[in-house]
Amino acid sequence: MELFKEDFTKTYAFRICIILLVSLVLLLPQKSIQNIIEERSETHDETVNKIQDSYGGNQSFNNIYVSIPAKDTLMNQVRRVFHVVPQMTELQVNSEVEQRYYGMYKTPIYVSDLHINSSINIESLRNQIEDYHYLAYKEAELVVEINDKNAINQLSDLSINEHEKVIEINPSDSKSCVKIKSPLEDLNKQQIAISLQLRGSEMMSFRHIGKTMNLEVTSNWPHPGFTGDNLPSDRNINDSGFSARWSLPEFNSSTKDYYINEPPINDNGAFGVSFIDPVDIYLLTNRSIKYAYLLIILSFMIIYLSEYRLKLQLNPFVYFLIGLAIIMFYSFLLSLTEHIQFGYAYVIGGFITIFAIAMYIYRLLKSIHFSAFIVMMLGMGYTYIYFILQMESYSLLAGNLGVFFILLLIMIITSSKAISSRIVQQKPLHTDN
Questions:
Q1: What's the longest Cα–Cα distance across the chain?
Q2: Is the per-residue pLDDT at 2 higher than 70?
Protein backbone atom coordinates (compact mmCIF):
# COMPACT_ATOMS: atom_id res chain seq x y z
CA MET A 1 0.00 0.00 0.00
CA GLU A 2 1.46 3.36 -1.03
CA LEU A 3 0.33 6.40 0.87
CA PHE A 4 2.53 8.88 -1.06
CA LYS A 5 3.73 8.23 -4.54
CA GLU A 6 5.89 11.40 -4.65
CA ASP A 7 9.64 10.96 -4.21
CA PHE A 8 10.50 12.22 -0.68
CA THR A 9 13.77 13.81 -1.83
CA LYS A 10 11.74 16.18 -4.03
CA THR A 11 9.34 17.28 -1.33
CA TYR A 12 9.42 20.53 0.62
CA ALA A 13 9.76 18.56 3.83
CA PHE A 14 13.05 17.13 2.60
CA ARG A 15 14.23 20.63 1.67
CA ILE A 16 13.41 21.88 5.14
CA CYS A 17 15.37 18.99 6.67
CA ILE A 18 18.39 19.83 4.52
CA ILE A 19 18.16 23.52 5.50
CA LEU A 20 17.98 22.57 9.18
CA LEU A 21 21.03 20.36 8.73
CA VAL A 22 22.93 23.25 7.13
CA SER A 23 21.92 25.45 10.08
CA LEU A 24 23.38 22.93 12.51
CA VAL A 25 26.63 22.74 10.52
CA LEU A 26 26.93 26.54 10.82
CA LEU A 27 27.21 26.13 14.60
CA LEU A 28 30.83 25.07 14.07
CA PRO A 29 32.13 28.33 12.52
CA GLN A 30 29.99 30.31 14.95
CA LYS A 31 31.65 28.56 17.91
CA SER A 32 35.06 29.09 16.33
CA ILE A 33 34.50 32.85 16.10
CA GLN A 34 33.24 32.94 19.68
CA ASN A 35 36.51 31.31 20.74
CA ILE A 36 38.46 33.96 18.83
CA ILE A 37 36.50 36.70 20.62
CA GLU A 38 37.27 35.14 24.00
CA GLU A 39 40.98 34.83 23.14
CA ARG A 40 41.18 38.46 22.07
CA SER A 41 39.36 39.47 25.25
CA GLU A 42 41.92 37.57 27.36
CA THR A 43 44.76 39.26 25.47
CA HIS A 44 43.12 42.62 26.14
CA ASP A 45 42.82 41.86 29.87
CA GLU A 46 46.46 40.80 30.08
CA THR A 47 47.58 43.98 28.35
CA VAL A 48 45.41 46.13 30.62
CA ASN A 49 46.98 44.44 33.63
CA LYS A 50 50.43 45.35 32.28
CA ILE A 51 49.36 49.00 31.98
CA GLN A 52 48.00 48.97 35.51
CA ASP A 53 51.13 47.35 36.93
CA SER A 54 53.33 49.98 35.33
CA TYR A 55 51.19 52.96 36.33
CA GLY A 56 49.37 51.83 39.47
CA GLY A 57 46.34 49.61 39.90
CA ASN A 58 43.13 50.16 41.83
CA GLN A 59 43.89 52.42 44.77
CA SER A 60 42.16 52.51 48.14
CA PHE A 61 42.43 55.23 50.78
CA ASN A 62 42.08 53.09 53.90
CA ASN A 63 42.91 55.07 57.02
CA ILE A 64 44.49 58.08 58.65
CA TYR A 65 45.37 58.40 62.33
CA VAL A 66 47.90 59.92 64.73
CA SER A 67 50.40 57.87 66.75
CA ILE A 68 51.51 59.47 70.06
CA PRO A 69 54.15 57.78 72.22
CA ALA A 70 53.84 57.75 76.00
CA LYS A 71 57.23 57.95 77.77
CA ASP A 72 58.34 57.59 81.36
CA THR A 73 59.72 60.70 83.02
CA LEU A 74 62.76 58.98 84.50
CA MET A 75 64.26 56.92 81.70
CA ASN A 76 62.62 58.85 78.86
CA GLN A 77 61.75 55.57 77.18
CA VAL A 78 58.62 54.77 75.20
CA ARG A 79 56.28 52.65 77.29
CA ARG A 80 53.13 52.73 75.21
CA VAL A 81 51.95 54.11 71.87
CA PHE A 82 48.47 55.53 71.46
CA HIS A 83 46.97 55.46 67.96
CA VAL A 84 44.22 58.07 67.85
CA VAL A 85 41.62 58.02 65.09
CA PRO A 86 39.84 61.20 63.92
CA GLN A 87 36.52 62.29 65.34
CA MET A 88 35.72 64.02 62.04
CA THR A 89 37.31 63.66 58.60
CA GLU A 90 36.65 65.89 55.61
CA LEU A 91 38.03 64.45 52.38
CA GLN A 92 37.93 66.20 49.02
CA VAL A 93 39.09 64.32 45.91
CA ASN A 94 39.52 65.59 42.37
CA SER A 95 40.42 62.94 39.77
CA GLU A 96 41.70 63.72 36.29
CA VAL A 97 41.10 60.65 34.13
CA GLU A 98 42.49 59.83 30.69
CA GLN A 99 42.89 56.80 28.45
CA ARG A 100 46.30 55.15 28.49
CA TYR A 101 47.15 53.13 25.34
CA TYR A 102 49.39 50.12 24.93
CA GLY A 103 49.35 49.28 21.23
CA MET A 104 45.68 49.16 20.27
CA TYR A 105 44.49 48.42 23.82
CA LYS A 106 43.53 51.06 26.35
CA THR A 107 42.38 51.52 29.93
CA PRO A 108 41.37 54.53 32.07
CA ILE A 109 44.07 55.90 34.40
CA TYR A 110 43.78 58.77 36.83
CA VAL A 111 45.71 61.26 38.93
CA SER A 112 43.78 62.24 42.06
CA ASP A 113 44.39 65.21 44.33
CA LEU A 114 43.25 64.44 47.88
CA HIS A 115 42.76 67.14 50.49
CA ILE A 116 42.28 65.71 53.98
CA ASN A 117 41.16 67.63 57.03
CA SER A 118 40.84 65.65 60.27
CA SER A 119 40.11 66.61 63.87
CA ILE A 120 41.23 64.42 66.76
CA ASN A 121 40.43 64.58 70.45
CA ILE A 122 43.08 63.38 72.91
CA GLU A 123 41.26 64.35 76.07
CA SER A 124 40.27 60.75 76.75
CA LEU A 125 43.96 59.71 76.58
CA ARG A 126 44.89 61.69 79.64
CA ASN A 127 43.02 59.25 81.86
CA GLN A 128 45.14 56.42 80.43
CA ILE A 129 48.46 58.00 81.35
CA GLU A 130 50.06 56.26 84.31
CA ASP A 131 52.12 57.96 86.98
CA TYR A 132 55.56 59.12 85.87
CA HIS A 133 54.48 58.90 82.19
CA TYR A 134 53.75 61.69 79.77
CA LEU A 135 52.55 62.06 76.18
CA ALA A 136 55.37 63.03 73.84
CA TYR A 137 53.36 65.33 71.60
CA LYS A 138 56.44 66.55 69.73
CA GLU A 139 57.20 63.00 68.57
CA ALA A 140 53.73 62.29 67.18
CA GLU A 141 53.35 60.79 63.73
CA LEU A 142 50.58 61.15 61.17
CA VAL A 143 49.99 57.77 59.51
CA VAL A 144 48.33 57.55 56.07
CA GLU A 145 47.31 54.11 54.82
CA ILE A 146 46.65 53.32 51.15
CA ASN A 147 47.01 50.22 48.99
CA ASP A 148 50.46 51.08 47.69
CA LYS A 149 52.44 54.04 48.93
CA ASN A 150 54.51 53.94 45.73
CA ALA A 151 51.41 55.30 43.97
CA ILE A 152 51.77 58.62 45.84
CA ASN A 153 53.20 61.27 43.54
CA GLN A 154 53.63 63.90 46.23
CA LEU A 155 52.69 65.01 49.75
CA SER A 156 52.09 68.68 50.48
CA ASP A 157 50.33 71.32 52.60
CA LEU A 158 50.73 69.73 56.02
CA SER A 159 49.24 71.93 58.71
CA ILE A 160 48.59 71.32 62.40
CA ASN A 161 46.17 73.60 64.18
CA GLU A 162 46.41 75.95 61.19
CA HIS A 163 50.20 76.14 61.43
CA GLU A 164 52.07 75.00 58.35
CA LYS A 165 54.68 72.32 58.88
CA VAL A 166 57.57 71.00 56.84
CA ILE A 167 56.87 67.45 55.71
CA GLU A 168 59.40 64.95 57.07
CA ILE A 169 58.87 61.27 56.35
CA ASN A 170 59.74 58.70 58.99
CA PRO A 171 61.03 55.34 57.73
CA SER A 172 58.48 52.54 57.46
CA ASP A 173 58.78 48.94 56.32
CA SER A 174 55.11 48.75 55.44
CA LYS A 175 54.16 48.95 51.77
CA SER A 176 50.86 50.62 52.59
CA CYS A 177 51.78 53.11 55.37
CA VAL A 178 53.33 56.56 55.12
CA LYS A 179 54.50 57.99 58.46
CA ILE A 180 54.91 61.74 58.66
CA LYS A 181 56.43 63.68 61.56
CA SER A 182 53.58 65.69 63.04
CA PRO A 183 54.53 67.49 66.28
CA LEU A 184 51.32 68.30 68.15
CA GLU A 185 50.48 70.89 70.75
CA ASP A 186 49.40 70.16 74.30
CA LEU A 187 45.73 70.62 73.47
CA ASN A 188 42.72 68.38 73.84
CA LYS A 189 41.59 69.02 70.27
CA GLN A 190 43.96 68.94 67.32
CA GLN A 191 43.25 69.91 63.73
CA ILE A 192 45.40 68.24 61.07
CA ALA A 193 45.30 68.84 57.32
CA ILE A 194 47.38 67.38 54.51
CA SER A 195 47.22 67.02 50.72
CA LEU A 196 48.52 64.22 48.56
CA GLN A 197 48.49 63.29 44.90
CA LEU A 198 47.72 59.69 44.05
CA ARG A 199 47.86 57.83 40.74
CA GLY A 200 45.95 54.71 39.80
CA SER A 201 43.71 53.06 37.25
CA GLU A 202 40.10 51.98 36.77
CA MET A 203 38.85 52.39 40.35
CA MET A 204 39.41 54.37 43.52
CA SER A 205 37.90 53.23 46.80
CA PHE A 206 37.70 54.50 50.37
CA ARG A 207 36.83 53.27 53.84
CA HIS A 208 34.90 54.94 56.61
CA ILE A 209 37.68 56.72 58.52
CA GLY A 210 37.25 57.57 62.19
CA LYS A 211 33.86 58.46 63.58
CA THR A 212 32.19 60.85 61.14
CA MET A 213 33.31 61.24 57.55
CA ASN A 214 32.30 63.53 54.70
CA LEU A 215 33.65 62.73 51.24
CA GLU A 216 33.35 64.63 47.98
CA VAL A 217 34.70 63.28 44.67
CA THR A 218 34.78 65.23 41.41
CA SER A 219 36.18 64.09 38.07
CA ASN A 220 36.23 64.85 34.36
CA TRP A 221 35.17 61.24 33.57
CA PRO A 222 31.52 61.08 32.44
CA HIS A 223 31.02 57.34 33.05
CA PRO A 224 31.34 56.61 36.79
CA GLY A 225 30.21 53.46 38.53
CA PHE A 226 29.56 53.68 42.26
CA THR A 227 30.42 50.54 44.19
CA GLY A 228 30.66 49.18 47.70
CA ASP A 229 28.75 49.29 50.94
CA ASN A 230 27.95 53.02 50.83
CA LEU A 231 26.43 54.78 47.83
CA PRO A 232 26.69 58.56 47.47
CA SER A 233 23.96 60.63 49.07
CA ASP A 234 24.20 63.14 46.23
CA ARG A 235 25.51 62.80 42.70
CA ASN A 236 25.59 64.79 39.48
CA ILE A 237 26.66 63.23 36.17
CA ASN A 238 26.92 64.98 32.80
CA ASP A 239 29.05 64.91 29.64
CA SER A 240 31.84 66.93 31.26
CA GLY A 241 32.24 64.68 34.30
CA PHE A 242 30.62 63.95 37.63
CA SER A 243 30.54 64.93 41.28
CA ALA A 244 29.42 62.80 44.22
CA ARG A 245 29.12 63.25 47.97
CA TRP A 246 29.05 60.79 50.86
CA SER A 247 28.03 61.63 54.42
CA LEU A 248 28.88 58.79 56.81
CA PRO A 249 27.55 59.11 60.37
CA GLU A 250 29.26 57.81 63.50
CA PHE A 251 26.95 54.82 64.02
CA ASN A 252 28.14 53.35 60.69
CA SER A 253 31.70 53.07 61.96
CA SER A 254 33.15 50.25 64.05
CA THR A 255 36.26 52.28 64.94
CA LYS A 256 37.21 53.02 68.56
CA ASP A 257 38.54 56.38 69.76
CA TYR A 258 42.08 55.10 70.12
CA TYR A 259 44.17 51.92 70.09
CA ILE A 260 47.06 51.06 72.39
CA ASN A 261 50.32 49.74 70.89
CA GLU A 262 48.71 47.77 68.06
CA PRO A 263 47.87 50.06 65.13
CA PRO A 264 44.18 50.24 64.18
CA ILE A 265 42.83 47.99 61.44
CA ASN A 266 40.05 49.65 59.51
CA ASP A 267 37.55 46.87 58.84
CA ASN A 268 34.77 49.20 57.71
CA GLY A 269 33.42 48.22 54.31
CA ALA A 270 35.05 49.68 51.21
CA PHE A 271 33.17 51.90 48.77
CA GLY A 272 34.09 54.23 45.96
CA VAL A 273 33.91 54.90 42.26
CA SER A 274 35.08 53.01 39.18
CA PHE A 275 35.97 54.78 35.95
CA ILE A 276 34.05 52.67 33.47
CA ASP A 277 34.92 52.32 29.81
CA PRO A 278 31.38 52.57 28.38
CA VAL A 279 32.13 50.40 25.34
CA ASP A 280 33.51 46.92 25.96
CA ILE A 281 33.98 45.83 22.36
CA TYR A 282 34.57 42.18 23.24
CA LEU A 283 31.45 42.00 25.37
CA LEU A 284 29.37 43.69 22.66
CA THR A 285 30.75 41.45 19.90
CA ASN A 286 30.20 38.33 22.00
CA ARG A 287 26.63 39.43 22.73
CA SER A 288 25.94 40.23 19.09
CA ILE A 289 27.07 36.84 17.75
CA LYS A 290 24.48 35.16 19.98
CA TYR A 291 21.83 36.75 17.76
CA ALA A 292 23.43 35.41 14.55
CA TYR A 293 20.78 32.72 14.18
CA LEU A 294 18.06 35.36 14.01
CA LEU A 295 19.64 36.65 10.81
CA ILE A 296 20.38 33.17 9.49
CA ILE A 297 16.79 32.01 9.96
CA LEU A 298 15.52 35.22 8.41
CA SER A 299 17.78 34.82 5.36
CA PHE A 300 16.98 31.13 4.91
CA MET A 301 13.26 31.88 5.09
CA ILE A 302 13.54 34.50 2.34
CA ILE A 303 15.60 32.21 0.11
CA TYR A 304 13.25 29.32 0.70
CA LEU A 305 10.25 31.45 -0.28
CA SER A 306 12.08 32.66 -3.37
CA GLU A 307 12.67 29.04 -4.37
CA TYR A 308 8.96 28.37 -4.15
CA ARG A 309 7.89 31.50 -6.02
CA LEU A 310 10.43 31.00 -8.84
CA LYS A 311 9.95 27.23 -8.90
CA LEU A 312 13.65 26.56 -8.31
CA GLN A 313 15.63 24.17 -6.18
CA LEU A 314 18.90 25.71 -5.03
CA ASN A 315 21.81 23.62 -3.93
CA PRO A 316 22.08 23.43 -0.09
CA PHE A 317 25.59 24.81 -0.50
CA VAL A 318 23.95 28.17 -1.33
CA TYR A 319 22.37 28.23 2.12
CA PHE A 320 25.69 27.33 3.70
CA LEU A 321 27.54 30.16 1.94
CA ILE A 322 24.94 32.74 2.93
CA GLY A 323 24.93 31.54 6.55
CA LEU A 324 28.72 31.57 6.59
CA ALA A 325 28.74 35.15 5.27
CA ILE A 326 26.45 36.22 8.12
CA ILE A 327 28.68 34.53 10.70
CA MET A 328 31.88 35.98 9.17
CA PHE A 329 30.36 39.42 9.74
CA TYR A 330 31.18 39.01 13.43
CA SER A 331 34.83 38.22 12.77
CA PHE A 332 34.98 41.30 10.57
CA LEU A 333 33.21 43.31 13.28
CA LEU A 334 35.74 42.25 15.90
CA SER A 335 38.74 43.17 13.76
CA LEU A 336 37.27 46.59 12.97
CA THR A 337 36.22 47.48 16.53
CA GLU A 338 39.82 47.04 17.73
CA HIS A 339 40.69 50.08 15.58
CA ILE A 340 37.54 52.20 15.21
CA GLN A 341 34.39 52.86 17.21
CA PHE A 342 31.95 49.99 17.58
CA GLY A 343 29.07 51.82 15.88
CA TYR A 344 31.10 52.63 12.78
CA ALA A 345 32.49 49.08 12.64
CA TYR A 346 28.97 47.64 12.92
CA VAL A 347 27.67 49.79 10.04
CA ILE A 348 30.64 49.02 7.76
CA GLY A 349 30.57 45.29 8.48
CA GLY A 350 26.79 45.11 8.10
CA PHE A 351 26.86 47.01 4.79
CA ILE A 352 29.55 44.77 3.29
CA THR A 353 27.79 41.59 4.42
CA ILE A 354 24.35 42.63 3.16
CA PHE A 355 25.79 43.84 -0.15
CA ALA A 356 27.66 40.55 -0.70
CA ILE A 357 24.56 38.44 0.07
CA ALA A 358 22.30 40.62 -2.09
CA MET A 359 24.65 40.40 -5.07
CA TYR A 360 24.94 36.64 -4.64
CA ILE A 361 21.15 36.23 -4.52
CA TYR A 362 20.72 38.42 -7.58
CA ARG A 363 23.25 36.42 -9.61
CA LEU A 364 21.53 33.18 -8.61
CA LEU A 365 17.87 34.16 -9.00
CA LYS A 366 18.09 37.02 -11.50
CA SER A 367 15.45 38.79 -9.42
CA ILE A 368 15.94 42.36 -8.31
CA HIS A 369 12.81 42.12 -6.14
CA PHE A 370 14.10 39.31 -3.95
CA SER A 371 17.53 40.93 -3.74
CA ALA A 372 15.96 44.18 -2.59
CA PHE A 373 13.72 42.30 -0.18
CA ILE A 374 16.63 40.49 1.48
CA VAL A 375 18.55 43.79 1.72
CA MET A 376 15.59 45.36 3.48
CA MET A 377 15.01 42.44 5.86
CA LEU A 378 18.69 41.98 6.77
CA GLY A 379 19.08 45.73 7.20
CA MET A 380 16.15 45.73 9.61
CA GLY A 381 17.60 42.69 11.39
CA TYR A 382 21.05 44.23 11.86
CA THR A 383 19.49 47.50 13.03
CA TYR A 384 17.26 45.69 15.50
CA ILE A 385 20.18 43.72 16.95
CA TYR A 386 22.26 46.91 17.25
CA PHE A 387 19.58 48.51 19.40
CA ILE A 388 19.36 45.35 21.51
CA LEU A 389 23.09 45.63 22.17
CA GLN A 390 22.63 49.20 23.44
CA MET A 391 20.05 48.06 25.95
CA GLU A 392 20.91 46.74 29.40
CA SER A 393 17.73 46.08 31.37
CA TYR A 394 15.50 45.14 28.43
CA SER A 395 17.89 43.33 26.06
CA LEU A 396 16.54 39.86 26.92
CA LEU A 397 12.95 40.98 26.43
CA ALA A 398 13.74 42.67 23.12
CA GLY A 399 15.64 39.60 21.89
CA ASN A 400 12.77 37.28 22.70
CA LEU A 401 10.30 39.59 20.97
CA GLY A 402 12.50 39.46 17.85
CA VAL A 403 12.58 35.65 17.87
CA PHE A 404 8.83 35.50 18.38
CA PHE A 405 8.24 37.97 15.54
CA ILE A 406 10.27 35.86 13.10
CA LEU A 407 8.46 32.72 14.23
CA LEU A 408 5.11 34.45 13.77
CA LEU A 409 6.15 35.68 10.32
CA ILE A 410 7.09 32.14 9.28
CA MET A 411 3.78 30.81 10.57
CA ILE A 412 1.80 33.46 8.68
CA ILE A 413 3.66 32.90 5.42
CA THR A 414 3.50 29.12 5.56
CA SER A 415 -0.21 29.23 6.39
CA SER A 416 -1.02 30.99 3.10
CA LYS A 417 -3.11 28.94 0.73
CA ALA A 418 -0.46 28.49 -1.94
CA ILE A 419 2.28 27.30 0.40
CA SER A 420 0.16 25.35 2.83
CA SER A 421 -1.16 23.27 -0.06
CA ARG A 422 2.43 22.12 -0.65
CA ILE A 423 3.17 21.49 3.01
CA VAL A 424 -0.09 19.81 3.99
CA GLN A 425 -1.00 17.17 1.41
CA GLN A 426 -4.28 15.50 2.21
CA LYS A 427 -4.50 12.16 0.40
CA PRO A 428 -7.06 9.50 1.03
CA LEU A 429 -5.87 6.29 2.56
CA HIS A 430 -6.28 3.26 0.29
CA THR A 431 -7.65 0.16 1.97
CA ASP A 432 -7.88 -3.35 0.63
CA ASN A 433 -11.39 -4.75 0.51
A1: 129
A2: no
